Each structure stands twice: as C-alpha cells, then as structure tokens.
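Protein 1 of 2
SEQ + STRUCT:
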Amino acid sequence: MPTEFHLRARAVILSGMFVLLVRQVGRDYTYLPGGHVSLGEPLQGSLERELREELGVEAHAGRYLGAVEAGWQTGRVRHHEINHVFEATVRGLTPDRPPPSMEAHLEFLWAAVADLDRYNVLPAPIRDLLRRRAQGDISTWWVGV
C-alpha cells in the first residue's frame, strides 16, 4: 500500500481561552492553521508563509510547543504526518469575529478551548495539549502514532 508523508508546521493562536482553528469547507473536522513545509524551508518560515497565504496577515512564529504525529488512510493510500507546533502572534485577530480566508476552500473560526471536542480538532491529541497550554502548561509536547 502506498504511503504519503506530510511534514507540517502549525500555529497555536490563542486569545484568552479561545483558539483559532481552520476547516476545509464541507468537512466535519478542524485543525490548527498552517500547512506543508517545503523541502529546504525552515519550519518557522514555512508557518509564517502559510499564515500569509491562508489569512493574508503577517504572523510571527514564536515558541516551539512540540510535535504531534498522526496517521490515517484514504482509499488505498496510507498517510503519515508530523506536525511541528509553534505559538504564533498575529496582530488584529480577535475572537469576536472569524478572520476572512484568502483561500476559497478554507474557513477560519474561533473555538473555546473547553469545546474542542465539539469541533473535532485533528489530530485528536491536539485537543488535550491545547487545553493544557491554555491553562499555562509550558512543557514541550510529543505525541506519537
């Protein structure tokens, strides 16, 4: 069975007890903003580029929070990803309204950290890690498949 590997950089953008999430239009799950890292591209630079492309904003990728591995299957293809997660700051984003998307297939939303299960945040271990981070836990993450 063929396998696809995905190296991703993801952002935790917190405002109080709310976190910014992204969803592909028509899907029943959400995930942290960010995306694929291009070959030879630094993780933080990749994250800042992805946020510029998706949200049209200048972001600063800050403290490294950790990594989360995930695996799934679509049809006859196995997928394996490693998500490197950073705190990120973006001026002007607040939970009172979702930011506009620069990509028609994506929509952004603010979710209360206490409600992450309701938003089906993937990979699932991110939910607990976000709750711990919002409560002040600054330990480095590592969750494997």
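Protein 2 of 2
SEQ + STRUCT:
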Amino acid sequence: MSIPISLLALLLLQSADDPMALVQRAYQLQQSGDYAASAEAYRAFLKLRPDEVGAHSNLGVVLTRLGRYDEAIREYETAEKLLPNDARISVNLALAYEKSGRLPEATAKLSALHDAAPRENQVTMLLADACLQGGDYARVVQLLQPLEQQSPDDLALAYLLGTALIRQQRISEGQVLLDRILKNGDSAEARFLLGMQMFESGDYPASAKQFAAASEANAKLPDLQAYYGQALLTTGDADGASAAFAKELEQNPNSFVANLGLGQILTVRKRFSQAAPLLRQALLVRPQSEEAKQALSECLRGEGKLSEARPLPQRPATAPDFTLPDVATGKKVSLSQFRGKSPVVLIFGSYTCPNFRASADALKKLQAKYGAKAPFLLIYIREAHADGDWQSTRNEREGVSLPQAHLLSEKQDHAAMCSRALHLPFQALLDGMGNKVETAYNAWPSRAFVVARDGRVLYSTHLTELDFSPEAMAQAIQDALAAN
C-alpha cells in the first residue's frame, strides 16, 4: 500500500536531520514496492547528500520501475560521472536507454561494456538482444555463436541465436536450434521460431497460423505480435495486422516493426496525426532505416508538411515488352503496339490474391475516368493463395477457394471467372505457364504500373493497403497523358 502524500511529507520532515534514516527509509520503500514514495525519499536525501552515488543509482532503478525513463537516465548519468567505469551503473543506464527507445545509445553503451569485458556473458546477451531489436542480425550471430558452443543447453541463447539466423535467411542453421527447442516440447517460443522460419521463406499464410498458435500459448512473447502483424498484412488482412501491431506496442512501445507497420497502415488510411508519432518512434529505434524514413516522409507529405518530407525515390526506367493472348479471344496483344500512341496501365493479379480483389473497385473507377485515353490491361498471373498451397486468413473468411492451374486452359478459366466475379472492365491477357511476364515485372502476387507513351515506367505499386494509393495512381496517369 502506498503511503499518503501528507504522511510521507511528515516522515521526510522528521528525517531531515538524519540523512541516514532518510536513505534507509527510501530503500525500505523501494523494497516494499512503493516506488513513488521511494523516489521522493531518495530525492530528499540527495538534496542533503548530492554526491552519493548509490542514492542516484537506486533512484534510477525506482524511476525505471515507474516508467519515468528520461528521469532515470539523468540519475544514472550522474552516478556514472561520480563513479566512472562501474559496470552495474553502466548496464542499468543502457537498459534505461533501451526502454526509452534510445536503442542506438543503449547499443553503444553495451558495446563499450562488452569490449571491456568480452567474457561477461550477461553483457553479451544484453548486447545481442539490443542488436536484434536494431536489426543487426550479423552482430547477434557473431556474439552468440561462441557462447552457444560453450552452452548448448541454454535455450534462451538458442532462441536469440536461432531468431537472428532465420532473419538472416540462414534457415538451415536456424533449424538446428529450432529442433533443439522443440525437443523440450511444444512451446510458444518453438511455434514463434517455426513461424518466423516460414515467414522468412515466404510462406506467409503458414507463418500466420504458427504465430497464432504461439500467441495462444503466450501472447506477450517479445516480437511475436509484430511478426504476426506482418504475416497478416502480407496476406491481405490489414485490420488483423493493425490489432496485432497494437498488442505488440502495449507491451513494447519501442518495437520497430510494430511502430513502422501500424504507422504505415494509418498513413494509408489518412490518419496522419496518429501515424506520425509511431513512425518517428520507429526512426528513433533504427535511425538508419530507409523504409522508416520514407514512411515518415509520406506521412508528413499527407499532413501537408512538405518542407519536412524527403524526396520520393526514382522509379524504374523501362517497361519490358511482352506479347500475350487475350483471355476471351486468344488474339495476341503486345505492349509495344501502344508505343508512341498512348500511356498504358498494367494490372497484375489473380483471384486468390486478397489485395488484388480489395483494390478492384478503385481500379475500376480509375479505368472509368481515364481508360478511354489510357488503356487498362489485366495480366492474369499464377494464383497467390491456391488450395493446398499457401492459404490466406482473409480468403478463409471470405470463402475464396481455387486450385493452382496446371494447364494453360485452367489458368484461362480462372482468369475469365475472375473478370466475371469482380466485374472487371479491363481487357484481360494471360501470362504463360512459365510466368515470364510476371517474373520480368516482379509482379507476384499483385502489382500495377503506369507506362508512358515512350515505354518508361512512370509509376508502380504493389496492391496492398499500405502501398496502393488511387490518388497517387490517378496523378501518375494524368502526368502520363499530359506528357508529349
């Protein structure tokens, strides 16, 4: 139970002539868990004894428990100046930096500690964890592989190292550590690593199921909800992704992935004032992230803060030519036949791609407005989430089910059905079974391009909720029509 403020003030006043009694009282309050009262007692003591290192350090601990990280950092920094090279103070300062979102400073502090005592395993593990949060997976592997050889039964170490290896796409090496964890029975950690392995391999629907299973076992596992959100977003479930990202941020406000992902979703939904703080926090955690910089720039541009926004990246130069059959008539259509005559809008997708289906209405409105001057071509590619392959949570909810085509005639039937079901007014072309055009445009699972009269790609976008902006595409078409 917390001590009432009036009673605390009386106790502190009675102890004013006895600093030792005051600091003892502060420590007792700290041990009992009354951190607010303990903080006041330590501050009162430090007014009398401002150079007491232990009191500054303990006050930092108490303030950290209260979530007042900036104040805690000031106390630890003061303690460190009074007693340089004390590892305990430096570790606590690094942890306060990390909890406040100042990850680069935490990593620098832990790196200095590790350099001074490379065999101190606790520091090595803390540094590895900070590097993992910062996305420096190679450093994590470098730090932990020697320890793993010494302590093969340390599952916490195996979990950290396995996570870094999988995120580096070193799947087979990560699998060894995953198997070691699985030998100890099914667990949230094992499910998370298995889902991460599937995610990094590109099997997003399967990874989402593993993340969901891990969440049932331990919803508060660090980074789990962030990865679950990424998997849901990649399979077209932006609402589910938003909920997962929000859950991650409830327990870890400094999660780079969750801040970036939710910030991007809110930006696309034009909720710029909510998105901007999240994207700024993502940049605070990873200052060098080009993706975070660009996301914040887009958000600021949406808010009308053009002077703060970064320039948009340059677009690809030339659209690869192709010749494909019309789905309905079989007549051959080439991209080059439009050269010098009109811009062209190319849309790549399949019926089992939820992002493609979700963007269909907006694309139809664009076609109705601009299609007479800029032809829209649908290029039907391989199914994004065919039966027995990678299923999407959104497809399951919407009852969308279709097998992967094994013959060109089957693919043609799928394309015709897609045009009917979505009432698409575009001329539909059929990519071959070798997926050559899809590959040339890097268009799987769905994508759209605006191609100028001279064949240059003026605009390209994935058809996810994060990427696809009808307004931006409309502007690109207008620019293409205005160009000579």
